[in-house]
């Protein structure tokens, strides 16, 4: 529920610019508009983390 609120607020504040939403891993997303990007981590979710040579 909180993630929907955060996404709604971010999209409303930049309603004249296109927004980009990227899922980083199971509990993290990146919100971007223009040259500004915000990382949002959702707590209390048991989700796997990205592991590998590019993501330690």
Layout of secondary structure:
Elements: H1 2-13, E1 19-25, E2 28-33, E3 36-41
Antiparallel strand pairs: 1-2, 2-3
What would you say this structure looks like, in words?
With 56 residues, the chain is of the alpha+beta class. The protein has one domain (2-41). It is 21% helix and 34% strand. It has one helix and three strands, in the order H-E-E-E. The chain has one helix at residues 2-13; strands spanning 19-25, 28-33, 36-41. The longest helix has 12 residues, at 2-13. The model has no long low-confidence stretch (mean pLDDT 73).
Secondary-structure element order, as H and E?
HEEE
Strand order of the largest sheet: 1-2-3
What form results from the Cα inertia axes? flat
The profile of the biggest β sheet is: 3 strands, antiparallel
Q: What is the chains' assembly state?
A: single chain
- Give the radius of gyration: 13 Å
Q: How many distinct helices? A: 1
Q: How many structural domains in the coordinates? A: 1
Helix-and-strand structural type: alpha+beta
Poorly predicted tracts of residues: none
Helical fraction? 10-25%
What are the defining features of this structure?
single chain; 56 residues; alpha+beta; 1 helix; SNase_OB-fold_sf
Q: What is the compact description of this entry?
A:
The protein is built from one helix and three strands, in the order αβββ.
């Amino acid at each position: 529920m909180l993630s929907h609120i955060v996404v709604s607020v971010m999209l409303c504040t930049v309603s004249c610019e296109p927004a980009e939403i990227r899922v980083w891993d199971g509990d993290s997303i990146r919100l971007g508009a223009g040259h500004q990007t915000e990382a949002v981590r959702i707590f209390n979710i048991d989700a796997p983390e990205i592991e590998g040579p590019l993501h330690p």
